[in-house]
Amino acid sequence: MAPQRASAVLDDLAGDVDAGYPAFVRAHAGAVYTTALRLSGSRADADDLAQETFIRAYKALQEFDADRVLSLESRAWLLTITLNLWRNALRRAARRPRETSARQVDVTDARRSPEAAAEAGENAELLVGLLRELPEHHRVPVVLRHIVGLSYAEMASVLECPVGTAKANVARGLDRLRALASPEKNKEVP
Amino acid sequence: MNSRPSTTGRRPRVGVDVAALRALRVDAPDGFVDSVLDGLGLNDADHLVTVQSPAGDLFVAFNDDGISAVMPAALFDDDPEKFAVHHRRESGRPLVAGNRPPTGLVAALRTGQATSLRYDLSGLSSFERAVLTKTLEIPSGEVRPYGWVAREIGRPRAVRAVGSALGRNPVPVLIPCHRVVRSDGHVGNYGLGVPMKRALLSAEGVDLERLERLADAGVRFLGSDTTAVFCVPSCTHARRIRPVHEVRFRTSAAALAQGYRACAHCAPVSVRDAS
């Protein structure tokens, strides 16, 4: 249960993928799962997305040589896989529409204390609802930056854009989210 | 007139700030990592359950190969995290919460017979495994000397090594190293402390005072003059001998010379004679 340092995890992975992979999964499960949950909005979809991310990553690592593993930006690399899987799933869903909204939307982390959850829960629930209304090109940067906590360097890598563009997209996404949060302000403009 | 319409169905105000967004971070659910690693055939973690036993609450670690570690929870302040750190240092494997105890564990702790459970002794030498496997055969309520284990595994001179191997038993209580005692009838050492050893044996019905008295008197074996069978004193068959039929022996040779046959249950010929 004691976490390993990031470089130690990569060292082990470069030495022997099978031996190092469990620690690699443990180190990044939270970030991958959070991304999957906040992009998809459902626990069931998040589970599939996050599982599939780690299966794809494992297969890819089999082909990497040790140097490539050692220089890996683990989290950005994994979340790029998650993002691609999610976009593919969206595309598939758009081609073959089925009921996606029926899936239950889960909001808060059940592990938090009841008091904290109750206090934060209401706002969190509303915020998750708003996130789902954000268009993809706004939702992705906000989720990666402000929920998962990526650096802008990681953002640029995942979004395949310059750092400045990543920053701008996060700012625009946040503005849009705030606008959604207080629609009456917009409407009050004469 | 009313500049703040409250009944027009507008949504409640939502706090959109960095802290509120950060609070939407979650951990992967319990079992997620296991499920990923199981799917890839890479699961290296042991599972942890806490069970009640005559030695108090026990932390029990296990994997697909069997039970890999047992420790009284009290030694770790009942804190599974502390045990996990210890377990990782000892076994090299992480520990994750298990759903339910391995099949048969609870029954084994109730009856004291843990022979049918599976154990993961992969970190041990073949000698240590042989010692523990033999020790597992000692029935609840009985004891055998260290030398008995050594002879039974074909290493009669390795009595001290047997003691060390038992001291490193990763699954105490279940593999009953507490049932291995000194040939002079005293209980000897125990990894979890001598008081715990005495308590476990007493809970199983071992009469320690009587065994020590017999040993002090130089008695190593008890025979029955009705069956002409001789046993180690704690053998379940020896305990059924009525006092009028009890015959005491210092050496197995003496018993054999008088026409007694060694008990098939307790294998007394592997016990060193009194000197």
- Write the CATH fold name of the largest domain in chain A: Rna Polymerase Sigma Factor, Chain: A
Count of individual helical segments of chain B: 10
Main sheet strand line-up of chain B = 3-2-1-4
Give the uncertain stretches of chain A in residue-range form: 100-105
Total DSSP E strands of chain A: 0
For this structure, the CATH topology of the largest domain in chain B is: Arc Repressor Mutant, subunit A
Globally, the shape of chain B reads elongated
Largest interface, Cβ cutoff 8 Å: A-B, 45 and 36 residues
Query: pLDDT below 50 for ≥5 consecutive residues: which ranges of chain B?
Result: 1-9
- DSSP strand tally of chain B: 10
Name of the CATH first level of the largest domain in chain A: Mainly Alpha
- Helix content range of the residues of chain A, please? over 70%
Domain count of chain A: 2
- The percentage of residues in β strands of chain B lies in 5-15%
Name the average pLDDT of chain B: 90
Give structural notes.
The complex is a heterodimer of chains A (190) and B (275). Chain A has 190 residues and is mainly alpha-helical. In chain A, 78% of the residues lie in helices and 0% in strands. The termini of chain A are far apart. About 3% of the residues of chain A have low confidence. Chain B is α/β, with parallel strands linked by helices and 275 residues long. Chain B has 3 domains: 68 residues, Double Stranded RNA Binding Domain, CATH 3.30.160; 87 residues, Arc Repressor Mutant, subunit A (Orthogonal Bundle), CATH 1.10.10; 59 residues, DNA Methylphosphotriester Repair Domain, CATH 3.40.10.10. Helix content of chain B is 31%, strand content 14%. A 4-stranded mixed sheet of chain B has the order 3-2-1-4, covered by helices on one side. In chain B, strands 9-7-8-10 form a 4-stranded mixed sheet. Chain B has a two-stranded parallel sheet with strand order 5-6. In chain B, a hairpin with a 2-residue loop joins strand 2 and strand 3. In chain B, helix 6 packs across helix 7. Chain B is elongated, with a radius of gyration of 27 Å. The termini of chain B are far apart. Chains A and B meet through helix 2, helix 3, helix 6, helix 7 and helix 9 of A and helix 1, helix 2 and helix 3 of B.
